[in-house]
Fold each of these.
Amino acid sequence: MGHRVEAVRSDERWAIKVPSLRGVFSQARHLDEVPAAAREAIAMMLDIDPADVGPIDVHVQKQGGAAAQA
């Protein structure tokens, strides 16, 4: 099972949200760091090892608009 992750640029960081898991948010400085940050946040919420999280499907949100898959 994978997780859809939404990332939107917020000042100098990427704000990360996992819509399927209420309350799972994180941030990353660079877009390429988003999957790892999301994986850690998901693992914490589910109390599992980050390696067991599964695939991360990152969708970049344009500020105030639609998503583009990264």
Amino acid sequence: MLKRLQRKFIGIAMGSLFVILLVLLGVLNGAKFYQMQQKTGNLLSLLMDNEGRFPEVKGGRPPREGDRMGHLQLSQETPFETRYFTARVNHSGDISQIDTGHIAAVDSSQAQQYAQAVLDLGDTGGYLGQYRYQVQQKDYGRLIVFLDCRSELQSTVSLLVLSSTVSLGILAVMFLLVRIFSCRAIRPVIESMEKQKRFITDASHEIKTPLAVISANTEVLELTQGENEWTASTKNQIFRLNGLVGDMLTLSRLEEEQARLVFTEFSLSDAVQEAAQPFEAVARSLEKQLEICVQPCLTGKGDESSIRQLVGILLDNAVKYSSGAGTVRVELSRQGKYARLQVSNPCQQIPQNPQALFDRFYRADSSRTRNTGGYGIGLSVAQAIVQAHKGKISAWGQDGVMYFQAQLPLVNLRGAPPCSETA
């Protein structure tokens, strides 16, 4: 139990931190990329509007620190820091002029190849390698401006790598810290649960002794004074309490961190068939019919006695609470990597929340529970058995029929013959 809660605590804490860091990474790097796009886009627009050159400002002087043109804040170094080249295309679609005077990494032939590639693409803007380009119609044809975005791209990628590395480092450090201090964080919860389990176990054992004494005294009274309605009622209540104590001890045993279950490979088909057959006589005595449909050759891995107990609990519940002289059906079949154990019975009043039936001492109809002798813990034991076998159990109602279905892991997944039905 401690390990399971610790893993959940670590998972929730690390998952929350991962989401926070992921959002921060997205916002930070998204803002950086947006800033790069805005800057390069404004530079391209400025160059495009001035025929591939930086304009002069006030009095024909070059830009100074703090000067603004449109959305750009220029400095005296801006024209020298910006690397770009241009290509002019005439109305016939031929490249008529190439200007590579503002870049050293590209010569005229390479610039012409880039321009031709853009013409072949037919786009008005985008990226071609490390160059961002823009195409605009002019009086003489078209002007293509290529802006070298190497430094901006490198800066963006560097920020992404650095922020990702720092985030991974934070996750690693936080994982170690959470793992170290998680035991202290969940210790009060563990102590509370351990006290609760210890109380249930101790109380169950303490109740057994007075129950044995009451049972013995009742038998003595029957021997000396004969059996009567009072002794019969006392024996009935003793039987119910013994069953309740047994189920409470089973629940406590199954919920331990390492439940004392012996996991072996066994014939799941035979176990279900044999556990279900005794209920045929019970169903007939209540004027009901039991149908058993078990797919043979299914092998499971787990505690065979617990699986038989699971079948018994589900069938006992179905036989007791089926309405009228209906048909109770138990079916075992393969479903992917799991075995599907399904028990169904007709039910006039389906609970509004069928999953609540697995809660301890839950009673959908208290009067029916008293009449049938139940005490609302059997299905909790069934759920604990399925969970101990790493399976799932569910309940639902449809068209006047109540269904309980358990999924149990299988060992063999091939060559199972078709389902055969035994009534």
Amino acid sequence: MATKRKQTEPPIVERIQTGVRMEKRLVKVLKALAEYHDISLGDLLEGICLHAFEGKSPFSKKSLQVIRDLKKVYGLDLTAIDSHRLLEKDGVQ
């Protein structure tokens, strides 16, 4: 059982390296967004996941506008509807 910590105390975590494969343009947008916020890609992904796990939106209105702009720059036309339906050039799902 995890010990309860005060909300003012930063959590101590153990991070691991992963070998995750993601769509190329999506990664470009994520990297650019992390750079925009001056955080690492890992920190951005952790924040997105932690917000999603609580059913909260991870992005402010300003960040959503930045994302829309970055999607145009990198030609990312995928949407949530495409989630779990992507096929790679060689037919891998």
